[in-house]
Design a protein that fits this description.
This protein has 217 residues and is of the alpha/beta class. It folds into two domains: 124 residues, Response regulator (Rossmann fold), CATH 3.40.50; 60 residues, Arc Repressor Mutant, subunit A (Orthogonal Bundle). Helix content is 51%, strand content 12%. The protein contains ten helices and five strands. Strands 2-1-3-4-5 form a five-stranded parallel sheet, with helices on both faces. Strand 3, helix 3 and strand 4 form a beta-alpha-beta unit. The longest helix is centred in the last third of the chain and has 15 residues. It is globular and about 50 Å long.
Length: 217
């Protein structure tokens, strides 16, 4: 399996340099293909190098990270964007979800956890720590993603998959819990997202909490 091609975006040179150095210790998992220090530069560089993953800060000059994420998601839908930030505000949580980012991580994250979450993104999973997922889901549960959507559209098995997904289970863990193949899990998740008109697992989890299909805790 080829390493993920990663674009690192942060206006703080020391942090960016440190992150690039950290990522270089796992050449089997990631390959840094570019660095940017503003949202505007990130959009231009992403279009040029077509990365698999963008790790991006929010607070930056010349275009903030969320605005850049929106543009990158529109121009390069196959590219995953993960916000790596110091911001814990619900406003940023909500906007990031609506943009369809693949994850939202805080900069005080442990290195090993970062690598584990990046591996999860490669498998199509959301890059969220359990603590961040809990905060994010509680916040998202206060708002309706779409009043016209309803869990009655889902099959019983799809609801089971959705509940486990919301608890933070990986595809492999869901397959073991329900005694089905990983490919079947992926198929169920694809159907769930299509039926509910959602962009990714993060939005699906938020929907499940908002509809009280699961306990946000």
């Amino acid at each position: 399996m080829l390493p993920l091609r990663v674009l690192v975006v942060d206006d703080h040179h020391l942090f960016r340099q440190g992150l690039v150095g950290l990522l270089s210790t796992r050449p089997d998992l990631v390959k840094v293909v570019g660095e940017a220090e503003s949202g505007q530069e990130a959009v231009i560089l992403a279009d040029r190098v077509k990365p698999d993953l963008v790790l991006m800060d929010i607070y930056m000059p010349e275009g903030d990270g969320l605005s850049a994420a929106r543009t990158i998601r529109q121009q390069l839908p196959e590219t995953n964007v993960v916000m790596l930030t110091a911001s814990e505000t619900d406003e940023h949580f909500q906007e990031a979800i609506q943009l369809g980012v693949a994850g939202y991580l805080l900069k005080n994250l442990d290195a090993n956890e970062l690598f584990d979450l990046i591996e999860g993104v490669e498998r199509g999973e959301a890059a969220l720590t359990r603590a961040m997922a809990s905060r994010l889901l509680k916040s998202a549960a206060k708002r309706s993603l779409n009043e016209d959507k309803g869990e009655e559209e889902l099959t019983e098995r799809e609801i089971e998959v959705l509940r486990l997904l919301t608890k933070g289970y990986s595809n492999l863990q869901i397959s073991e819990e329900l005694n089905i193949s990983v490919n079947t899990v992926k198929t169920h998740i694809s159907h769930i997202l299509k039926k509910l008109q959602l962009k990714n697992r993060t939005q699906a989890a938020a929907y499940a909490v908002q509809r009280r299909l699961v306990d946000p805790d």
